[in-house]
Amino acid sequence: MNDNDDQTPFYLKKRYLIVFLVFLGYTNLYTMRVNLSVAIVALTENRTITVNGTKTYEQQFSWTSKEKGFALGAFFYGYILTQIPGGILAAKIGGHLVFGFGIFATAIMGLLTPILCYQGITYLIAARVLQGIFSGLSFPSVNAIYAKWSPPLERSRTASYGISGIYVGTVIANLLSGWLGDTFGWESIFYVFGFATIIWNVVWFAVVRESPEKDPWITTSEKRFIKESLKNQKGQRNIIKPPWKAIFTSGPLYVIAVAHFSYTYGYYTLLTQLPMYMRDILGLDLTKSGIVSGVPYILQTVLIFISGYFADWLLMKKYFTLTQVRKYFNNSALFFQMVFLLISAFVTNTTTIIVCISFSVGLGSLAMSGYLPNTIDIAPQFGSILLGITNTFATVSGLISPPLSGYIAVTPTAAEYQIIFFITCGVYILGIIVYGIFATAEVQPWAVVDAEDNENMNELKK
C-alpha cells in the first residue's frame, strides 16, 4: 500500500494538515524555549549610562555566569518531570489535547516572564521550571497523534517534518530575538512569541481531532487509507494498560534512550551556548550573534525534509530494512556532528568556525529518521509512553550541559569552549557505539496482543 491508494487531493489530506500544525506547534514551543538564550545576553550586557556628563557602564541584571547557567538550565528541571506522565496522559485522553494544552500553558508562563525577571533571578528560574513542566507534556504526546494518523511507510517523513518545527522555531527565536531586543526592548522577546502561540492554540483546538474516526472533516478515501495501512501492523490494537515491567526491562528501549541522550546533549549544548559564544569569543553584537546563531538551524531545517523523504524512499524501494535505515541515519548524524564540532574547536578563523558549527548542527537532522520514530517501530500503541521515557533520559542532558558549561566558561575563553566541545564529542561517540550495535526496529513481543486477547481485555474493562 502506498500514498497513491488514497485518492484525496494533496491539499485536502487531513493527516498532512495535522503534521503541518504539529510543525507550527513545535515552532512556537521552541521560540519560547530558545528566546531566553538570546534575551539573557540583553538582560546582562553592559549599558552605557551618562551621569552629569560622565559615561559609566552598568548591567540591568548583574547575574553571574553560574546564575545564568542555572537560569538557562532551569527549564529542564521541570521538563524532565512530565515526560512519562505526558505520554501516559496522551494515551488515555488523546495526544491532541495534551499537545495543545502543554503549549498553551507554556505560552502563559512566557508572557509572565518579563514581570518575574524584575522580581529577581529566583523568580525567573521558577518561571522556566514551570515552562519546562508544561512543555514536557507536549513532546511525547505527538507519538500518540502519529500512531493514529500516520501510515507506517510515512512515519520517517511524518516525524521529520513535524519535529522540524523545533529548528524553525530555533531559527526564528535567534533571528528575531536580537532584533526585538535592540528595537523594542528585551521584554518584547517574550510578548511577541507568547501571543503568537496563543493564536496557534485557537487553530489547533478548532481543527485537530484524536483520530480519523473522530474527525468530521476527513474524506472517506483518506480515512479508509489510514485505517487499512494501520490494520495489519503488529502492536497497533489498544489494550487495557501498558506492560510496565516489560517496558522498563526492554533493552531496545534503553538503546533508543542512549541515542536520544547523545543527540540531545549536543543539541542543548549548542542551543544554550551559541549566542554567548558568538558574542564572547567571536565578538559579534546581539543582533549579529542572533542571526549567525540561527544559520545552523536553517541548514538543519532544509536537511530534515530531505532526509525524512529519503529514509522513507529507501524503505519503499526495499533497499534497506527498517532497522538498517534507523541505524544508518542516526549514526551518520552523530558522526558528522562530532567531526565538524571537533574541527571548529581547533580552527581560529571566524568564518570557518561558523561553517563547521552550521554543518555540525545541520547534519543532526539525519537523526530524526533514526532514534526519533524508533519508539513507534518497536511498540506502536505505546509510542507516546516510550518517547516520554527516552526523552526523560535525554532531558538529563539539559540538566547537565548548561550548568556545566557555565562552570567551565567562566572567563570566558576559546580554550574553555574547547573543553565544552570535547565533552560533547565524547557523548556523541557513546551514542554511535551503543545504537550502532544494539538498535532494532522490530516490534517487541510485549507490544503485541492478538485479537482474542484484546476482546477478553475489553470485556474485563466493561
Automatic annotation (TrEMBL):
The chain crosses the membrane at residues 16-43, 70-90, 97-115, 158-176, 188-208, 246-268, 297-316, 328-346, 384-405, 417-438. It is found in: Basolateral cell membrane; Cytoplasmic vesicle, Secretory vesicle membrane; Cytoplasmic vesicle, Secretory vesicle, Synaptic vesicle membrane; Lysosome membrane. GO terms for molecular function: symporter activity. InterPro entries: MFS, MFS_dom, MFS_Na/Anion_cotransporter, MFS_trans_sf. One of its GO terms (cellular component) is synaptic vesicle membrane. The keyword Zinc does not apply. Gene3D superfamilies: MFS general substrate transporter like domains. Residues 17-443 form the Major facilitator superfamily (MFS) profile domain. Keywords: Cell membrane, Cytoplasmic vesicle, Glycoprotein, Lysosome, Membrane, Symport, Synapse, Transmembrane, Transmembrane helix, Transport. PROSITE patterns: MFS. It is a multi-pass membrane protein. One of its GO terms (biological process) is monoatomic anion transport. It catalyses: L-glutamate(out) = L-glutamate(in); D-glucuronate(out) + H(+)(out) = D-glucuronate(in) + H(+)(in); N-acetyl-L-aspartyl-L-glutamate(out) = N-acetyl-L-aspartyl-L-glutamate(in); L-aspartate(out) = L-aspartate(in). Pfam families: MFS_1. Receptor for CM101, a polysaccharide produced by group B Streptococcus with antipathoangiogenic properties. This is Sialin. It comes from Polypedilum vanderplanki. The lineage of its organism: Eukaryota, Metazoa, Ecdysozoa, Arthropoda, Hexapoda.
